[in-house]
Amino acid sequence: PAAAAAPLPEEDCMKLNPSFVGIALSSLLAIDLWASKRLGVCAGEGSAWGSARPLMKVIEVSGHGIPWLLGTFYGLCQSDSSAAREVLLNLLFALLLDLVMVAVVKGLVKRPRPIHNKMDMFVTISVDKYSFPSGHATRAALVCRFVLRHLVLAVPLRVLVVLWALIVSISRVMLGRHNMTDVLFGLLLGYALYGVVERCWLSPASAPALFALW
Fold first, then answer.
1. CA angle (60 as vertex; 103, 143 as ends), nearest 5
2. Average pLDDT in the 99-122 region?
3. 177: how many CB neighbours lie within 10 A of its CB?
4. What is the pLDDT of residues 73-86, one digit of tens each?
5. Which of 66, 105, 159, 172 is deepest in the core (most CB within 10 A)?
6. 150 classed as catalytic
7. Domains (ranges, CATH) in the chain?
8. Catalytic annotation, pick one of 64, 116, 150, 178
9. Of these residues, 64, 116, 136, 150, which one is catalytic?
10. Dihedral over alpha carbons 139, 141, 142, 146 (to 10 degrees)
11. Phi and psi, residue 40, nearest 5°
């Protein structure tokens, strides 16, 4: 009689019998990729909503880090109020923290951009070739929480701030820049980063050297 077949190594058994968690994650990833491609209606001029692409790119710039950093730094230099300088200095700290954290996560995960994305983004750096997480979504959530907490705004303006954060985040998928999970994680990361900023709040008492510069 033929010799009994040798048992498969444990790692091969695992490949032949993937776990429920592995199947679930693979399925969710497939759904994410499929839905993100379907929602990328402004990914190119020939897309379903290609005519709205210029507007989406304006929204993209509104959530970009450079305008926010330059605007905050300019306001910091022009401010003659100690309270305003404290808020602006902490906003600058929040924006820099956001850039560093997003770059670190992108560098670790190295998830490629969606294949339907056109690499025509406004001012990119090396890690911007990666997709996870969405830096725009992270920044939108962080700035939204910061503004709502530290600026006195009328209710209509507060609603507009929230709508801006949502529109910036949704535009990332519509432009084909990101998958949905990139944006969702970005929003969660930005929300969490605001908590870090609050815990490390810079004030004349905690960081006198910084405030001496202004």
1. 65
2. 92
3. 28
4. 999 989 888 899 99
5. 172
6. no
7. 16-212 (1.20.144)
8. 178
9. 136
10. 130
11. -80, 60
**DSSP secondary structure string for all residues of 38-107:** HH-TTSSTTSTTGGGHHHHHHHHHHT-HHHHHHHHHHHHHH---HHHHHHHHHHHHHHHHHHHHHHHHHH
170 or 125, which is more confident: 170
Rounded to 5 degrees, φ, ψ at 134 are -80, 115
- Torsion, CA 123, CA 114, CA 171, CA 193, rounded to 10: -70
Are 170 and 42 spatial neighbours (Cβ–Cβ below 8 Å)? no
DSSP state of 124: -
Sign of CA dihedral 71, 126, 38, 34: negative
d(CA 60, CA 213) in angstroms, rounded, equals 33
Whether pTM > 0.90 for this model: the answer is no
Task: Give the confidence band of 122 by pLDDT, cuts at 50, 70, 90.
Answer: confident
Whether residue 178 lies in the annotated active site? yes
Residue 61's pLDDT is: 95
